Amino acid sequence: MITGTTKLIAHLGYPTESFKAPLIYNPYFEKNGIDAVVVPMGCRPADYPAFLKLLFRLSNIHGALITMPHKISTMALLDETSTSAKVAGSCNAVRLGSDGRLIGDMFDGEGFVRGLLRKGKKVEGAHALIAGAGGVGSAIAASLAQAGVEHLAIFDANEATATALLDRLRKYYPHLEVTVGSADPDGFDIVVNATPLGMRRGDPLPIDIDRISPSTFVGEVVMTKEITPFLEAVRARGCAFQVGTDMLFEQIPAYLEFFEFPTTTADNLRAIAKLG
Question: What domains can be seen in the chain, in order of their start residue?
């Protein structure tokens, strides 16, 4: 039940038809007696800067989940941002501080890294390759850097995008070895597809499968199909891997901690979600 004491978490994006978060958070809140609710709110980009400020003047607002197309533009509207958000260049969670300040963070990469760790993959000291330096790839790079990887290789078809991420990583993690320009997976402990390749039938594989060692851990971000052609191919080589939706479910416990709610596990969230 939504009452006058319910804490409101806005799910901000446009359009809202594909939003999944309410179908995960709200069953969890209900089952655990947490007086909060996630509500989709469609906001066009032109209206967003003014709307976000007004939203956080509501007396019952607690926070906001931020999705496309607002993750980047949110950065300029905040009073405080985490290092992960600064490296990613985007934000997907905002909460109201006790002093009224807007505090932002980025959890896409956190979800990815938590998934790796829960599967027993050692991240600290690892060598990782990320194909794709857009929003998701940048967020994963930020969290891998925070988790202590030794070497991070970035590849993107748009060289300027990869170089911009390189510059942000060097600014906030000056001791991290970062390289750009090659998608050769040979010699890496962790390989990540953070490109859209695999969303459409007939897409080429994002990385040369023949160059991936069977001992390499492979991560996928595409969520339209659990076992993408890329994961099918690396599975055939004997690689351990992580499916795209793991990143989604693994980041929600981090969100709950950020919003100062009782947290849970990704497995529990999967069990009670009403995704159909």
Answer: 7-107+247-272 (3.40.50.10860), 109-245 (3.40.50.720)
